[in-house]
Amino acid sequence: MRNSTQSGRLARKVYLFLLPSLAGTAVFVLLPYVDVIRRSFFEAAGGRFVAMQNYLTVMGNRAFRLASFNTLRFLVICVPLLVVVSLFCSMMIAGL
């Protein structure tokens, strides 16, 4: 019984330590991200609701499509390579 009480207290302390970080993340990362998505449905100058028109305009831009393709290609090549190299390095270090 004593261990469960201590583990409950420990869990509460852990959550209390994490709370400021989670609150900061919500305020400085998540809320601005949600605001950007909301604003993307409005005209930049007039603030008039334009629905998906901004997205259609961007998708029609050849430079944007090229940049998106390059980013996707970079992601598909570099992320798996980074994981494999990192795993190899950690295995080498652990083997020492």
Automatic annotation (TrEMBL):
Membrane topology: Multi-pass membrane protein
Signal peptide: none
GO CC aspect terms: plasma membrane
Transmembrane region(s): 14-34, 72-94
Subcellular location: Cell membrane
Record keyword Amino-acid biosynthesis present: no
Major site of localization recorded for this protein: membrane
Keywords carried by this UniProt record: Cell membrane, Membrane, Transmembrane, Transmembrane helix, Transport
Coiled-coil blocks: none
Protein name, UniProt field: Sugar ABC transporter permease
